[in-house]
Write a structure and sequence with these properties.
Length: 255
């Protein structure tokens, strides 16, 4: 079965809408329903919509660029936490240290599942809090500054999970999306009923402008959540979880 490359998924999703608009244009031309005249106001509306789309995409990209860093930072903190526990295990041969490494490995796996919405945020936070029991048990086995470093990594993981959850669950600007969709829809409607001569050129411009408008609105909405691994119909490549998965492999080798 042919699989559409990720970079062309959005294009494939937009094309049926463009084809439908062109069909409406053909029907409108055939029955002489093109009652609108092309004037400067039409260009002004397109310019206003481009400005709005630019505003939305600039805001979305800020969160997207931040989201790209989160898996790597999570992987670093998880592995640093495992390293500290591994030192205790090697120096003291304590069973509680081995159990602690297993807990960090399970926590790392749960975080990957959480990104796929197979785990609840409350469960991840509970697993993080359970690390406190291990820190308490480590006190007789290591120096205080080791415990402090582990607590810092625990707090870092908690902060990163909270931030990722906020990015995933919060839409950038719903009102902005709504007006961009309305304006884009009205522009496509206007293009269908606008008389543009020569006719064969009008088909090209209608298809081109409609494609750009619909593509950009869909792209912004898709970029708004860079953690849509749980969506089978996701249109673009999500932020990679490879750093966390590689960290899990290394953590397993420590025990």
């Amino acid at each position: 079965m042919f699989k559409i490359p990720i970079k062309w998924k959005l294009t494939a999703r937009v094309l049926p809408f463009v084809v439908l608009i062109l069909l409406f244009k053909l029907v409108a031309h055939h029955y002489e329903l093109e009652f609108l005249a092309l004037n400067s106001l039409f260009g002004a509306i397109i310019s206003a919509n481009v400005f709005l789309v630019g505003f939305l995409i600039s805001g979305v990209l800020v969160d997207y660029k931040e989201a790209e860093k989160l898996p790597g930072e999570l992987a670093t903190s998880l592995e640093a936490l495992a390293d500290e526990i591994s030192i205790i295990q090697k120096s003291k041969k304590a069973r509680v240290a081995s159990d602690g490494l297993v807990h960090v490995e399970q926590l790392s796996t749960s975080i990957v599942d959480w990104f796929h919405k197979k785990e609840k945020t409350s469960a991840i936070m509970s697993d993080l809090s359970e690390l406190n029991d291990y820190f308490f048990a480590f006190e007789p086995l290591t120096q205080a500054n080791f415990i402090v470093r582990m607590k810092q990594e625990q707090n870092t993981i908690r902060r990163l999970i909270t931030r990722a959850d906020s990015i995933r669950e919060t839409s950038f600007n719903k009102s902005g999306y709504a007006i961009a969709e309305v304006i884009s829809g009205l522009l496509c409607f206007g293009l269908v009923f606008t008389k543009i001569d020569p006719y064969h050129e009008s088909l090209f411009f209608v298809a081109f402008v409609s494609f750009i408008l619909i593509y950009m609105v869909m792209l912004i909405k898709d970029l708004d959540n860079p953690f849509e691994y749980y969506e089978t119909e996701s249109l673009s490549e999500e932020v990679s979880l490879k750093p966390i998965k590689e960290a899990i492999s290394r953590i397993r080798k420590k025990n």
